[in-house]
Amino acid sequence: MKTEAPAYRRIVLKLSGEALRESDGRENISPPVVRAIAERIRDVHSLGVQVAVVIGGGNIWRGLTAAGRGMDRTTADYMGMLATIINGMALKSALEELDVPTRVQTAIEMKNVAEPFILGRAIRHLELGRVVIFVAGTGNPYFSTDTTAALRASEIRADVIVKATKVDGVYDRDPTTDPKAKRYDRVSYTEALTKRLKVMDSTAFSLCMDNKIPMIVLDMNKPNNIRDAVLGRSVGTIVCGDAEAKTN
């Protein structure tokens, strides 16, 4: 049987911190949930695809929420960055239990825990077949992990960002509150910005537009979705440049 070839050579997988949490919220980091995510990454990695991961920390700490409740924004954001390091370590452990070679690179130096982010080293790890997990955001406050995903994807010259969420794509309205919400199969970054579609923040959008990096937004709760997207199958919503969006 002929093996299906992946549509992308190098990807950035964006995961929220909440993805590591039990659905009932009892555990901020659930080992079975983390292992299930690691298995999906292994399936993509086994296709020969170079995989980098950017992970959030919202299951442990949300800097923006804390700032809204009176905490200094810079301090709150740094606490959020530390939360992403915890999540990255948990995912690395799960991947290595599945015999997937993995490296964690942090934007905040922490020698006993992870490598510092060094672009050339990150690319070399990917070329050698290692999964690279980027943690601690950009290392600066006031930037989201969505922006981190767009930045790292630009730096490592990724072919696509795969944003794994709890919904099956991008909608014109909130599908959890409006049953008439329309899901897009393909939408341009310009349209997403104009219509204020809640996909990424404006800084992340700008980086993706400037560097012509498409993004696939999909439901991570369906086990084969990430693999199917990497194989070029129709999954979720593709967010791309104006010209590419018009080809739909």
General description of the model:
The protein is of the alpha/beta class and 248 residues long. It has nine helices and eleven strands. It has a nine-stranded mixed beta sheet with strand order 4-3-5-2-1-6-10-11-9, with helices on both faces. A two-stranded antiparallel ribbon has the order 7-8. α1 links the parallel β1 and β2. The longest helix is centred in the middle third of the chain and has 25 residues, at 73-97. The radius of gyration is 17 Å and the shape is globular. The model has no long low-confidence stretch (mean pLDDT 91).
CATH class: Alpha Beta
Radius of gyration equals 17 Å
What is the overall silhouette?
Answer: globular
Strand content: 15-25%
Architecture, CATH level 2? Answer: 3-Layer(aba) Sandwich
Order of helices and strands: EHEHHEEHEHEEEEHHEHEH
Strand order of the largest sheet: 4-3-5-2-1-6-10-11-9
Given helix and strand content, the structural type is alpha/beta
N/C terminus separation: 31 Å
